[in-house]
């Protein structure tokens, strides 16, 4: 990347052929994008920072006169069982469905596909990508049917002599995590297929010649060569999973009770069902902070890679 | 050695097939239920296949208007995203200034932000600006949410068009925008198509944004109006729900097929993700 960029960057000023004009004029095409992002992205985030420290509400005293309440919203959040429950469920959901599920399954699929016959590869690829392309709510309905007491999963379990259960009531966070794996694995699979296709064949062959078995090759040759893809993928799917709303909302509405109420659902309930905008934005701020921490780790990784 | 290779190939195939079947099972339900008049929740082959469910949902209120709304909303937002992304990518790709790197890092940073978290203040902003329940406002927000990733992708594709071609145009006196329109864009249309289709597919499935920002039933896109199948009267009609889901999914399936056949979707995406 740097080698292809360097010559043009160096050559451009010396040729002197580019149209003259103030730097600002050249940068003018950026303005529509910057304008939209300032109004609809930066604005709301700043507003979020402000509202999180107020008692803003859609109804009641907070609606008439908005007051600063300092850290009250955050104190209330971290002192509340429902909030800590939501944080806990969000972490479980992200860990099971993204970091373990989508990531490992996606890598596994990409690896297996290199060794399989074309028909099988196409069949599996189409099935996995089909699940990914489906609109969020449709996917949620398909999986609600799948996990239902009378659904397909229990039919299969009974057929092999295992006890079934009403997954959406008995183990809702597991059900929505599996649903998110079903829906999201295609992304990791595509990223890893692309990354694996760029490893030169000779490297793996020579490792094989040196007597490295399948698992050793995987651990010491293949995985180290795609570390960058792994990091990028982990970060993107972690952030996507952190903000999943529609899938869980359509499958369980966060219930039964609060058993699958992750942070986005808790925030939605507080801000809109209970009209506590101030408190809701405080939760949103916590989510943004979690996302920002992940983004910063990712950017650090990218920067150290470039250096 | 060869026997072991064959064994490992067979094992890979079997494991893949098993995973593939697990992925297909939920999809089978929607296919079978859509042609089954008495569809329940389990996968079953209908004894008397019928198109009755499709007939029942193919009317203005249930299907035509929500799908049309979705096309207006997502099409409009995807086009707006694309125009802004191409314009923004040009100076970022062509001129090197001190401003580029911080801006690109900010854009990358924004792709990571959970948009869900911004929805509460965005709703507040929309109330202030009187934009709640307007298509225009929703289009602008959806376009903004998709912009960071679209700028990043577009710039990656634009970097692939050699700058020497434009230098010739500049000598002939063409301005930047003219060079972009006449030289760069025609050479990167596959990239443009990838970004546009990915943006559209992402928006078509998006539930939360229109769910929050639009209220009137006659403005709701298909991703939200699907909730009308769950009335207050207990069990929804699963067959009709399945038929509707299929109709609603068809546009993105076709677009994805177009993408992967013509343009090699996997590699385009993979290449872009590498940054």
Protein described:
- The complex is a heterodimer of chains A (about 300) and B (about 280).
- Chain A is an all-alpha fold.
- Chain A has helices spanning about 1-15, 25, 30-50, 60-65, 70-80, 80-115, 120-135, 135-145, 150-160, 165-170, 170-195, 200-210, 215-225, 225-240, 245-250, 265-275, 275-305.
- Chain A contains 17 helices and no strands.
- Chain A is globular and about 75 Å long.
- Chain B is mostly helical and about 280 residues long.
- Helix content of chain B is about 75%, strand content about 0%.
- Chain B contains 13 helices and no strands.
- In chain B, helix 6 runs antiparallel to helix 9 and helix 9 (about 190-205) packs antiparallel against helix 12 (about 240-265).
- Chain B is globular and about 70 Å long.
- At the A-B interface, helix 1, helix 3, helix 6, helix 7 and helix 8 of A face helix 1, helix 3, helix 4, helix 5 and helix 6 of B.
- Chain B: It is a multi-pass membrane protein.
What's a quick, concise take on this entry?
By secondary structure, chain A is mainly alpha-helical.
List the SSEs and their pairings.
The complex is a heterodimer of chains A (307) and B (275).
Chain A (H helix, E strand, L loop, with lengths): L1 H14 L7 H4 L4 H21 L9 H4 L7 H8 L1 H35 L2 H16 L2 H12 L4 H8 L7 H4 L1 H25 L4 H9 L4 H12 L1 H16 L3 H7 L10 H11 L3 H30 L1
Helix pairs in contact in A: 3-17, 5-17, 6-11, 6-14, 7-11, 8-15, 11-14, 11-15, 12-13, 14-17, 16-17
Chain B lengths: L1 H33 L17 H6 L2 H35 L5 H13 L2 H14 L6 H25 L4 H8 L4 H12 L1 H17 L2 H6 L8 H4 L12 H26 L1 H9 L2
Shape field of chain B: globular
Residue windows where pLDDT falls under 50 for at least 5 positions of chain A: 1-17
* Tally of alpha and pi helices of chain B: 13
Helix content range of the residues of chain B, please?
Answer: over 70%
Q: Profile the largest sheet of chain B.
A: none
Strand content of chain A: under 5%
Give the class of chain A from helix and strand content and strand pairing: mainly alpha
Query: In whole angstroms, how far apart are the ends of chain B?
Result: 40 Å
Rounded to the nearest angstrom, the radius of gyration of chain A is 25 Å
Radius of gyration of chain B: 23 Å
Q: Which series of helices and strands of chain A comes N to C?
A: HHHHHHHHHHHHHHHHH
H and E string of chain B = HHHHHHHHHHHHH
Number of helices of chain A: 17
Shape of chain A: globular
**Which two chains have the most extensive interface, and how many residues on each?**
A-B, 105 and 99 residues
Q: What does the largest sheet of chain A look like? A: none
Strand element count of chain B: 0
- On the 0-100 scale, what is the average pLDDT of chain A? 83
């Amino acid at each position: 990347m740097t080698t292809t960029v360097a010559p043009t960057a160096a050559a451009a000023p010396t040729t002197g052929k580019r149209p003259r004009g103030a730097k600002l004029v050249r940068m003018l095409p950026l303005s529509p994008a910057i304008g939209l992002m300032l109004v609809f992205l930066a604005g709301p985030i700043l507003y979020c920072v402000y509202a999180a420290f107020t008692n803003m509400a859609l109804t009641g005293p907070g609606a008439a006169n908005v007051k600063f309440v300092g850290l009250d919203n955050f104190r209330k959040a971290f002192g509340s069982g429902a909030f800590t429950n939501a944080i806990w469920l969000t972490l479980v959901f992200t860990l099971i469905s993204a970091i373990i599920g989508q990531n490992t399954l996606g890598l596994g699929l990409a690896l297996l596909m290199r060794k399989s016959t074309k028909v099988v590869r196409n069949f599996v690829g189409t099935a996995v990508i089909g699940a990914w392309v489906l609109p969020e709510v449709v996917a949620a309905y398909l999986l609600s049917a799948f996990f239902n007491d009378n659904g397909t999963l229990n039919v299969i379990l009974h057929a092999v002599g295992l006890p079934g259960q009403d997954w959406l009531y008995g183990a809702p966070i597991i059900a929505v995590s599996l649903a998110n794996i079903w829906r999201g694995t295609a992304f990791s699979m595509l990223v890893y297929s692309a990354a694996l296709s760029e490893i030169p064949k000779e490297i793996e062959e020579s490792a094989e010649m040196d007597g490295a078995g399948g698992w050793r090759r995987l651990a010491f040759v293949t995985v180290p060569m795609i570390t960058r893809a792994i990091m990028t993928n982990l970060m993107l799917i972690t952030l996507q999973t952190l903000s999943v709303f529609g899938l869980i909302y359509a499958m369980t509405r966060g219930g039964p009770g609060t058993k699958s109420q992750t942070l986005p659902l808790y925030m939605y309930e507080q801000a809109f069902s209970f009209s506590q905008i101030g408190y809701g934005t405080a939760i949103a701020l916590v989510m943004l902070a979690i996302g920002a921490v992940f983004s910063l780790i990712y950017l650090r990784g990218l920067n150290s890679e470039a250096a | 050695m060869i026997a072991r290779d064959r064994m490992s190939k067979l094992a890979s195939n079997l494991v893949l097939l098993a995973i593939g079947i697990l992925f297909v099972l939920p999809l089978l339900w929607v296919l079978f239920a859509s042609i089954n008049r008495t569809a329940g929740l389990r996968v079953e082959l209908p004894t008397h296949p019928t198109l009755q469910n499709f007939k029942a949902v193919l009317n203005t209120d249930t299907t035509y208007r929500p799908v049309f709304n979705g096309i207006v909303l997502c099409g409009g937002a995807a086009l707006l995203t694309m125009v802004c992304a191409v314009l923004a990518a040009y100076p970022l790709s062509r001129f090197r200034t001190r401003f580029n790197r911080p801006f690109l890092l900010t854009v990358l940073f924004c792709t990571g932000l959970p948009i869900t978290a911004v929805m509460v203040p965005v709703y507040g902003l929309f109330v202030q600006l009187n934009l709640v329940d307007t298509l225009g406002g929703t289009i602008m927000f959806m376009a903004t949410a998709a912009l960071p990733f679209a700028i990043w992708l577009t710039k990656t594709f634009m970097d692939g068009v050699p700058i020497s071609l434009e230098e010739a145009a500049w000598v002939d006196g063409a301005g930047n925008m003219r060079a972009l329109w006449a030289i760069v864009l025609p050479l990167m249309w596959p990239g443009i198509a990838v970004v546009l289709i990915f943006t559209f597919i992402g928006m078509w499935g998006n539930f939360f944004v229109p769910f929050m920002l639009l209220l009137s039933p006659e403005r709701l896109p298909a991703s939200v109006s699907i909730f009308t199948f769950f009335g207050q009267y207990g069990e929804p009609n699963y067959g009709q729900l399945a038929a509707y889901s299929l109709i609603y999914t068809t546009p993105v399936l076709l677009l994805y097929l177009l993408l992967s056949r013509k343009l090699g979707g996997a590699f385009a995406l993979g290449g872009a993700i590498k940054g």
